[in-house]
Fold this sequence. Notes:
Layout: H1 28-35, H2 38-41, H3 59-71, H4 93-99, H5 102-105, H6 117-134, E1 138-140, H7 146-163, E2 172-176, H8 182-189, E3 193-197, H9 207-213, E4 218-224, H10 236-245, E5 249-254, E6 273-276, H11 278-281, E7 296-298, E8 310-313, E9 318-321, H12 338-375, E10 394-397, H13 399-405, H14 409-418, E11 425-426, E12 435-438, H15 446-465, H16 467-471, H17 484-487, H18 497-503
Parallel strand pairs: 2-3, 2-4, 4-5, 5-6
Antiparallel strand pairs: 1-7, 6-7, 8-9, 10-12, 11-12
The structure holds pyridoxal-5'-phosphate (PLP).
Pyridoxal-5'-phosphate is lined by residues 85-86, 145-147, 180, 182, 224, 253, 255-256, 277, 292, 294.
Amino acid sequence: xxxxxxxxxxxxxxxxxxxxxxxxxPKIEEEIRSxxxxxxxxxxxxxxxxxPALPGLSEVEVVRHFIRLSEMNYGVDSxxxxxxxCTMKYNPKINxxxxxxxxxxxxxxxxxxxxxxxxxxxxxxxxxxxxxxTGTYEVCLHPAAGAHGEFLGxxxxxxxxxxxGESEKRREVIVPDSAHGTNPASAAMAGFDVVVVPSNDDGCxxxxxxxSAVSEKxxxxxxxxxxxxxxxxxxxxxxxxxxxxIGGLLYYDGANLNPILGKARPxxxxxxxxxxxxxxxxxxxxxxxxxxxxxxxxxxxxAKFLPVPRTVFDGTRYSLDYxxxxxxxxxxxxYGNVAVLLRAYAYIxxxxxxxxxxxxxxxxxxxxxxxxxxxxxxxxxxxxxxxKPRKHECVFSAKPLKNETGVSALxxxxxxxxxxxxxxxxxxxxxxEEALMIEPTESFEKGELDRFAETMHKICKEAYTNPETVLKxxxxxxxxxxxEVKASHPRTMVLSWRMxxxxxxxxx
Length: 508
Ligand SMILES: *Cc1c(COP(=O)(O)O)cnc(C)c1O
């Protein structure tokens, strides 16, 4: 049984003494002052009058404080992390190391192009590789997340229809009900009306419903594939035909590209716009909101609309091209999250084509092995076609367990924490009641998959024999059940020391 460290750690601002300091640095301010006139650099109204109220702590105190806090946390380096969809896939540590090399991490976006030829070459090559992997014509690396890529994609749709004089007419974007939640949000943000089409018993897009949803008002369709049930849309060719026939564009949400890497390409399936999540599929650890990268690949016809600058190569040198009259402009400062993109470059280079294919094979094998191992558990069902293999993830329903014992998907997720396993995504996708969305990724080995399945067995058995234990879980973690309603209510959240002081009417 797992037992998480539990320190009664105070907030760092309440520790230490004023005037104490953990560092010894030369007094450089006077040196700088002797060379430049600082007063002319920083306008008077922007100068800090008071010293910042930093706690006075020694180096050791600071290190121990943060180590203790980290011991009360759980991450992908601690153990099993079978999240579902937004999962961190395989993240080799060497890629973090490469991205932090000073020759790479210390370059500045304002440096002259002639001094950053290396990084431009990397970005240029990465664009070519991602175009090859996705089967698209050109790729833009700028978007900082998957949802940001979707937003760019839907803006490209808008621009395309505007160019054809049809943007007034084509107001609707079609999104299947098995799509990731960001798809309808992005379409709405770009100003489109969202039309939802249902799934059939196979967990795929209902073609008849799609036929009746498309019209001359359709701007395009956004397809998450594999969808959030982990199922590959088997009628993709047919879907593409239906949407293209009425003049709509096809958008592929490839956030989870790992199950098809080197096996199939969205471009070949007829998609005009594709986004991928570097921070899921191409080796960047993420969590707590970033940093990420959501490159977007497009077909030839849409390439001229991509954001500036484009990285170009004339045979001898790399440069940044802003002279693109049809470009939609900029969607992010500079050239994207370069350190994240670098990891993708290193990942693709080190695995090679054969390695990428193996990622696809192992991720699919793991998800299906786990699905089979979980399929017989009393209390759980596998909604939608049980015979259909899944891709990177599988979605179970704990509805029977809830009806029979009162133990819900949430309670199972909490109880998993007691066994040192991160909770899977729950209550998503919305089309499955009491959903448990599980993605083992290509990083699990067989022993771990078996341990996860055994633990799920144990918990569901406990639900019948000793439901109280599961209902009150977790018992072995640093923090027990949180008040989830309170935790997501913006008015009660105290996220910083400044907010804490403000709430208590104290000054910083
Ligand atoms: C994670 C995910 C997204 C959103 O990506 P973010 O980087 O979190 O914005 C979109 N679609 C799918 C299928 C995803 O799994």
